């Protein structure tokens, strides 16, 4: 009897999670349609001065070529407001999540935090540590922008991208282990770890220097740290990912970066996010997700590593 009730509750949870996710995607689609239908600066067409002019305008509209909707992120951004079709990435996401029982690992409230920021900043540059069942959702919510995933498991990348070939994912490796966390935490007092620079030229042991070069060359507007693995002693842990995310945010030329760290109920994510992303930059915490807003340190010299 207990087993039956457990299975029923799990089924209800999966159904509720799917409904939540589909609601997010439909709301985002509605937002895109509203933006394209009601542009921010509408231009009024001149009133025809005669019936002849009206006829000419009507014929011109009938013979005008249809606007082809873009399929790439760059083209979508350039064509914003001119295409009213459902974006391909969003259409794919709706179909994908409507036909699968696998749902993202973050809760509705946690996803809502990132969604609010994406609603303001997208299309933008979005870097995600980790590739998973929620990756198509993040790409779709950043329609017209660039969303890149960094994943430690090469076989997992192959499995996911075979099903979802539009995702942009890179294989990365880490040379740390969870058992090193206590020693690495001591580096917060070292001056080389407080120096703001390109991670590739940093002298701090925590700075990750092995990402693809384009990861360092892009100014990321959002960074989500939800990887690498960190739940057992031999796992790489997220010490380096958290520090490097904060360093890239500080090293941008101007502006600020929204950095999210998931699983802050765990010791490493909790301690390292507070130490290297700084409690003074903490915007909010919802469930197991922590949101930091890290400003550029290049735009104002002399800014301390943490406020």
**How many DSSP helices?**
11
Class from helix and strand fractions: alpha/beta
What are the low-pLDDT stretches, counting only 5+ consecutive residues below 50?
1-11, 39-67
Proportion in helices: 40-55%
Distance between the termini: 55 Å
What is this structure, in a nutshell?
Helix 6 links the parallel strand 1 (125-129) and strand 2 (146-151). This protein has helices at 2-37, 51-63, 73-78, 88-98, 108-121, 135-141, 154-163, 181-185, 213-217, 239-250, 267-278; strands spanning 125-129, 146-151, 168-171, 222-225, 256-262, 282-286, 289-295.
Task: Give structural notes.
The protein has 307 residues and is of the alpha/beta class. 43% of the residues lie in helices and 12% in strands. The protein has helices at 2-37, 51-63, 73-78, 88-98, 108-121, 135-141, 154-163, 181-185, 213-217, 239-250, 267-278, and strands at residues 125-129, 146-151, 168-171, 222-225, 256-262, 282-286, 289-295. Strands 3-2-1-4-5-7-6 form a seven-stranded mixed β-sheet, sandwiched between helices. Helix 6 links the parallel strand 1 (125-129) and strand 2 (146-151). Helix 10 (239-250) packs parallel to helix 11 (267-278). The radius of gyration is 23 Å and the shape is globular.
Ordered list of secondary-structure elements with their pairings:
Elements: H1 2-37, H2 51-63, H3 73-78, H4 88-98, H5 108-121, E1 125-129, H6 135-141, E2 146-151, H7 154-163, E3 168-171, H8 181-185, H9 213-217, E4 222-225, H10 239-250, E5 256-262, H11 267-278, E6 282-286, E7 289-295
Parallel strand pairs: 1-2, 1-4, 2-3, 4-5
Antiparallel strand pairs: 5-7, 6-7
Helix pairs in contact: 1-4, 4-6, 10-11
